[in-house]
Specification:
The complex is a heterodimer. By secondary structure, chain A is of the alpha+beta class. In chain A, 41% of the residues lie in helices and 14% in strands. Chain A contains 26 helices and 18 strands. The N terminus of chain A is likely disordered. In chain B, strand 3 and strand 4 form a beta hairpin. Classes of the chains: A alpha+beta, B alpha+beta. Strand 13 of chain A pairs antiparallel with strand 2 of chain B. The structure holds iron/sulfur cluster (SF4) (2 copies).
Chain lengths: 612, 127
């Protein structure tokens, strides 16, 4: 499979940086060849290292957990959208492997500093930040930044260190160990999911600041220049390019509402009345300041926006589709000004807008049903659609005040404590809140949520388009498509690229092995890349099993009861529901396609085939 | 003829910088490019692109006359250049760079590689 020459001189940074916050030890290790061969990079590196280094049963918020920042071999290079980096840790939301992929410019900078992976272990006694300037790495005092919002902190650190530093930081939510605290970067990019911001907070780690000035050498510069140019040209000439740059993911809002797949009022409905008011068109008309791209991206989806509230200007990147779905739809915040402001509050507090929106929506429904009362809200009306209520709830969560303390653990734990049937509408799988697709009439999408290895997230398999193409009622055959997507899409997280050029601009998948070869000299076929991706998927499954040896079973893959006990109350999918029996058929098929047993455990044969 | 930029359309992708370094140095490093992109965030929230307009200030300040003009483009003669950095200091748009890897300042030679790679057409030629 490999060319003769050493793989590490090209494409990769070549080193793992290890920082122990408990004892202050900072070391580097060469990137092991076997890791490269079997796991490629990014999410692959993170899964393998965490599986090997974390003892089962450790407290995700304790010093034994580790935060990994892992880039991939294509990050930082001349090719479309090599700007993605993976943050990973044992997730406080799921108590299993958690990762979250972030755009912006950090991935490239980490590579230019000479690293592929940064492993942060232990915990500092006082607030600190990690300073990385090429080979100079220091653990520095962060007292002056602690307590500050994420946007302000990034600005302060850039002022103090130099604007060229790339910063990843947490806000107050991470400091207070909110289980859906995110990590923020580039004034609007987040590693949003699985609560890794809380893990940083538990380590007293406010931020990571990186500057790299080294060059990335590549195996075949002329070839990279040639293929890179072709790939960019393909992106620019695609008919979807213009619309994508114009609105980014916000362009999906109208479509999703028309499909009845827009989570609305805590997934009671699939379409928001007046959704036109939070469409991509309205974003462009009302709030857009500038288009904003991640490193190397030919089709900037970032929409930097401004809104004015009580005579004050608020700047924020977004709201992108997921924010529109979980705050605009799920909390029914149905106008652009309020939605943009809500986005700003979450970004400044350092809260994932997906889980954050879902938790607020859950609280609003609890209030609607009398499970949360005026005693808990301090007399305030926590009704759907109220930006004042959203503001109050999210701030109580971020500071763990009153009932906010309970909500700060996510809808699964909150509903277990609140009881009164609220478990049924706690919209999560494995402890992670469901992202932006109502799926009762989209079995492939539902299965994607049920089986996603980090909990209910859409990025591993955006299967709803498949449901629409082949028939939404069909159950049989959907598992095969979900597995196929679950192997393709994480490859982008492994090599360090954005997937949207493939998804939205149909950039050919053939490019990736070619780019990998030109960059690193390594000869991977696309099938070998898929195998590596499947290996990672099975490894994260083993992680889940290892953490839950006594209780593990297919119940881990069930969706919340709302999806099989209640019908959609409104919109184009009104009345739709999926039966428990069909959910089991989906799972049986899925396990079968994967080579897992009836309980969802990988069979010994499968593990052997993957070399695990 | 020289390179000009309409910053209002810039998305901050830095593709122009990566292709510049790959084309000239056969490696990727945006800090070894002959143009620059400044991010103005969180406020007012846009990018500023700086490019070389071949004004010739560099040539006029070079103490060893290592920079000369040919068809309107100023080029550094690597053999004559002592790496003193006077031109870098004098450049009115601050688009000449010293990098630890390179004994000679990095300067735009109007190769035009960056122009078609900017999707939003920030970069263009001006007479
Ligand atoms: S499409 Fe969006 S997320 Fe992907 S690289 Fe471009 S700007 Fe970043
Ligand atoms: S390629 Fe164009 S949009 Fe991208 S940074 Fe350069 S000037 Fe800006």
């Amino acid at each position: 499979m490999f060319a003769e020459r050493s793989p590490f001189g090209f494409g990769y940074g070549g080193k793992i940086l290890r920082v122990n916050l408990s004892n202050g030890k900072i070391t580097t290790e060469p990137l092991p060849g076997k890791l490269v061969r079997d796991y490629l990079g990014g999410r692959g590196f993170a899964a393998r290292i965490l599986y090997d280094e974390l003892k089962p049963g450790i407290d995700p918020m304790g010093p034994d957990n580790k935060v990994l920042i892992a880039s991939g071999p294509l990050a930082g290079l001349f090719l479309p959208a090599g700007g993605k980096i993976t943050f990973a840790a044992k997730s406080p939301a799921t108590n299993s492997y958690g990762d979250s992929n972030m755009g912006g410019h950090l991935a490239a900078e980490v590579k230019y500093a000479g690293y592929d992976v940064i492993i942060i272990e232990g915990a500092a006694a006082q607030p600190v930040y990690l300073y990385i300037n090429n080979d100079k790495v220091e653990i520095r005092d962060a007292a002056k930044y602690w307590g500050q919002g994420a946007i302000i902190t990034e600005d302060m650190l850039k002022n103090d260190l130099g604007r060229e530093f790339e910063i990843a930081t947490i806000g107050p939510a991470g400091e207070n160990k909110i289980k859906f605290a995110c990590i923020s970067h580039d004034f609007g990019r987040q590693a949003g999911r699985t609560g890794i911001g809380a893990v940083m907070g538990s380590k007293n780690l406010k931020a990571v600041a990186v500057k790299g000035t080294k060059s990335l050498k590549v195996a075949d510069p002329d070839k990279l220049l040639e293929i890179g140019k072709q790939a960019f040209a393909d992106c620019f000439k695609h008919t979807g390019w213009k619309q994508w740059v114009a609105q980014g993911t916000a362009g999906v809002t109208v479509w999703s509402n028309q499909q009845g797949s827009f989570p609305t009022r805590n997934f009671q409905s699939g379409s928001l009345k007046g959704y036109e008011n939070i469409s991509g068109d309205e974003l462009v008309k009302q709030t857009l300041v500038n288009h904003k791209a991640c490193f190397g991206c030919p089709c900037a989806c970032g929409k930097y926006a401004k809104t004015v509230r009580n005579n004050k200007d608020y700047y924020v990147e977004g709201p992108e589709y997921e924010t529109a779905a979980l705050i605009g739809g799920d909390c029914a915040i149905g106008n652009m000004a309020d939605l943009t402001y809500a986005n700003y509050i979450c970004d400044e507090l350092g809260i994932d807008t997906i889980s954050g929106g879902s938790v607020v929506a859950f609280a609003m429904e609890c209030y609607e049903k009398g499970i949360i009362t005026k005693k808990d809200t301090g007399g305030m009306d926590w009704k759907f659609g109220s930006i004042e209520a959203f503001d109050k709830i999210i701030n109580m969560i971020a500071r763990r005040q009153g009932i906010g303390n309970l909500l700060a653990d996510g809808v699964k734990i909150a509903s277990e404590k609140l009881g009164k049937g609220s478990e049924k509408f706690a919209m999560q799988v494995k402890g992670l809140e469901i992202s932006g697709y109502e799926s009762r009439n989209a079995p492939a999408m539902m299965l994607a949520y049920m089986t996603c290895d980090i909990g209910a997230h859409h990025n591993r398999a955006w299967a709803i388009t498949h449901d629409i193409q082949v028939g939404r009622d069909i159950i049989e055959g959907k598992a095969k498509k979900v597995v196929e997507l679950q192997h393709i899409r994480p490859i982008f997280d492994m090599v360090g690229c954005c997937r949207l050029q493939w998804v939205e601009l149909e950039l050919k998948l053939d490019y990736y092995p070619q780019l990998l070869k030109a960059a690193t000299g390594l000869d991977f076929t696309w099938d070998e890349m898929l195998k590596a991706s499947e290996r990672v998927w099975n490894l994260t499954r083993l992680f889940l099993i290892k953490e839950h040896t006594q209780t593990f079973g297919r119940q881990f893959d069930y969706p919340p009861a709302r999806w099989y006990e209640e019908t959609v109350v409104n919109g184009p999918t009104k009345g739709s529901i999926i039966s428990k029996a069909n959910i089991d058929i989906l799972l049986d098929e899925y396990y079968n396609v994967r080579g897992w047993d009836k309980n969802g455990k990988p069979t010994p044969e499968k593990l052997k085939e993957l070399g695990l | 003829m020289y390179l000009d930029a309409d910053s209002s359309k810039c998305t901050g992708c830095r593709v122009c910088l990566t292709v510049c370094s790959l084309y000239h140095f056969k490696e990727v490093n945006p800090k070894k490019a002959a143009l620059a992109v400044d991010a103005k965030f969180p406020k007012p929230g846009h990018y500023e692109v700086r490019v070389c307009n071949q004004c010739g200030t560099c040539a006029s300040v070079c103490p060893v006359e290592a920079i000369s003009e040919k068809s309107g483009i100023y080029i550094i003669d690597a053999d004559k250049c002592t790496g003193c950095g006077e031109c870098v200091k004098a450049c009115p748009t601050q688009v000449m760079f010293l990098h630890e890897d390179s004994p000679v300042p990095i300067k735009c030679d109007l190769c035009k590689e960056c122009i078609p790679l900017c999707g939003t057409k920030v970069l263009f030629l001006k007479d």
